[in-house]
């Protein structure tokens, strides 16, 4: 009897350990490095979760050790609760450098208590950052972790929130629309964006509510084509050996397209493509039939 009880507990122990290993969530240190605000970055749960926080002394950021030339990049994120106007939490791919960088951005723009947090995306090419889109959430992004994902292949770049496409940037190089084509790293950070992020910079950070804490998970194997940073282009990463380069990833399917249209109809609150004051002639990548956003 005693033996079988002991055996049962051994069995339980094996189950628990096996579960941990099978979980596949390799620790933060395997793929990422904290890059700034070292004392404002707290690994948790054996590196499966990273908290980065901002107070009036510093924010913090981390990035992948490797560079990539295509892939599906995701992060599970829970953004700061409470009065977070002016606080920007970001998850993005970037070539790094100023003025000529390519970058694919998720930027969570904090807000005053009770006012909506906004998700801004941007596609920056050669330093040109004039492609902002902003949407509202259909859930509370401060309450739970949600999955934020960027697909990048030779045909399109798609931003997803929990598998719902919220932005598509097609490769229109044929009509001379720039398309990111240099190796990028994965980056995440929390910083003071009070000069622009909330109400065009009018809402400042209320430091009484600091620290502002953002949580990240999903540091497991990165689904990306790794490339040496010195490569000038990413052509070799467009090979069909990679899943995300397969034809079904070249465009949204009908279900995805429908979900995307719904987001544009119901949740979009800014689109540079329809900002005629700023761009009397919409940039060439903007669809002619762009949905008009009610102001
Ligand atoms: C990342 O951290 C590791 C371990 O601390 C270090 O060896 C490596 O040089 C760092 N890499 C970069 C790109 O900073
Ligand atoms: C569209 O793609 C999604 C995600 O891969 C998939 O779950 C869904 O079944 C596809 N729908 C159609 C109609 O092919």
UniProtKB/TrEMBL annotation:
Contains at least one intrachain disulfide bond essential for its enzymatic activity. This is Xyloglucan endotransglucosylase/hydrolase. Catalyzes xyloglucan endohydrolysis (XEH) and/or endotransglycosylation (XET). Cleaves and religates xyloglucan polymers, an essential constituent of the primary cell wall, and thereby participates in cell wall construction of growing tissues. GO terms for biological process: cell wall biogenesis; cell wall organization; xyloglucan metabolic process. Residues 1-22 form the signal peptide. It is an enzyme of class 2 (transferase). Residues 3-216 form the GH16 domain. Its main location: secreted. GO terms for molecular function: hydrolase activity, hydrolyzing O-glycosyl compounds; xyloglucan:xyloglucosyl transferase activity. PANTHER family: XYLOGLUCAN ENDOTRANSGLUCOSYLASE/HYDROLASE PROTEIN 8-RELATED (PTHR31062). Its EC number is 2.4.1.207. The active site is at 103 (nucleophile), 107 (proton donor). One of its GO terms (cellular component) is apoplast.
